[in-house]
């Protein structure tokens, strides 16, 4: 369901001007309808990003460390233990993780022919994540979420006739990452799930995080 700027402002406790700023900058799932913005109602409960993100290198190191890989410097292990403690104490750990991993890889949103999604998902230039990852238990057949090498991205766009889509309703999300991994750490899968605003994606992200911390 979508609501207007004034409705969102009243429910979120911020000014309409601030809501429009967040919508225009892409920090809210919103679309233009004529001269006004319409915003996804579920975003009312999402806190704007206020935490400083980790560098891409440290974000991926933390994601690997949370899965038990301990080949990181001692000073990082100490910091990672503190971050893991914060995750365990948080009521919304998926939002913490999404903020820390905010600059993990540039994200590109597209629309593809729905009939192509099944075959696109099997393209060996993709490493599936988020709603497309088996561990999410969602594996939506209506969208594709994956990491790609930056050099492969233009070819994929051309070959699959992908069209840029900034409407917050893309059915293909490609995250360009040099040295694309063959598998994605579960913490990163959780952060990619948290990029969505649905309750199912949020619950799946939270479940993955809890499993890493148990």
Map the helices and strands.
Blueprint: E1 2-4, H1 5-12, H2 16-24, E2 30-33, E3 36-40, H3 56-66, H4 74-89, H5 93-100, E4 107-111, H6 117-121, E5 127-128, E6 144-148, H7 153-159, E7 163-164, E8 172-176, H8 186-194, H9 199-213
Shape: globular
* Biggest sheet character: 5 strands, mixed
* Strand residue percentage: 5-15%
- The number of distinct helices, counting runs of at least 4 residues, comes to 9
Got a strand count? 8
Radius of gyration: 18 Å
Query: Residue-averaged pLDDT, rounded?
Result: 88
Helix content: 40-55%
SS content category: alpha+beta
First CA to last CA: what distance? 35 Å
Unreliably modeled segments: none
Strand order of the largest sheet: 5-6-8-4-7
How many domains in all?
2
Sketch the topology as an H/E string, one letter per element. EHHEEHHHEHEEHEEHH
Could you characterize the architecture of this molecule?
This protein has 214 residues and is an alpha+beta fold. It folds into two domains: 2-44; 53-214, no CATH class. Helices cover 41% and strands 14% of the residues. It is built from nine helices and eight strands. The strands form two sheets. A five-stranded mixed β-sheet has the order 5-6-8-4-7. Strands 1-3-2 form a three-stranded antiparallel β-sheet. A hairpin with a 2-residue loop joins strand 2 (30-33) and strand 3. Helix 1 (5-12) crosses helix 2 (16-24). The two termini are 35 Å apart. The relative contact order is 0.15. The model has no long low-confidence stretch (mean pLDDT 88).
